[in-house]
Amino acid sequence: MTARGGFSEGLYLILTEPVAGYEACAEAAVAREVPWLQYRPVRECAEGRLACARRLRRITRNSATRFIVNDDVELARECAADGVHLGQDDMDPERARRLWPDPGAWMGISTHNARQVRDAEMRGADYIGVGPVFPTRTKVVRDPVLGVAGAAELIRASALPCVAIGGMDAASVPRICAAGIRTFAVIGAVCNARDPGAAIDGLTAAACG
Asked: Whole-prediction pTM value?
């Protein structure tokens, strides 16, 4: 298996009901050239999800920020996203590829242990999420916490680009970077902020410090 080229390291921003609004967060991310922006809706109806996804696609189009849709392959295809990210309980990756055969579309898969990492590599993932690194409240069913060392070990063992995910903020990002992890996902650190641009700046400064 050969890893796909073109993966950009850095902040992987996941948007779930941000207090500043989806569009404001996306605009702040694009202005700062955040490499990845994932739309992870929770309560929106199907029509609302599509409308929001299309607005985020307009904001991110022709920018340095790749737009990823969480879980929903059909929504990702409908809004012409850059890719989709699948969890362990979501659609089978092979079926996802059949539904959306665009060779340019990125497909990420969440993993929580070594077996899942190997499985994602064999099933055609372009990158994987590894976590949770720290405890998180964003999932009803929580996977065992890996810790920084555990996540770093899985990431070093994978041939694919990896995104560390789970409970990270500006205070913990330096530990992530010190462990050699180059791409990290955040949700609450930006979604709970009234000024998403300042929150992104804080995370970037922490990663570079």
From this structure: 0.96
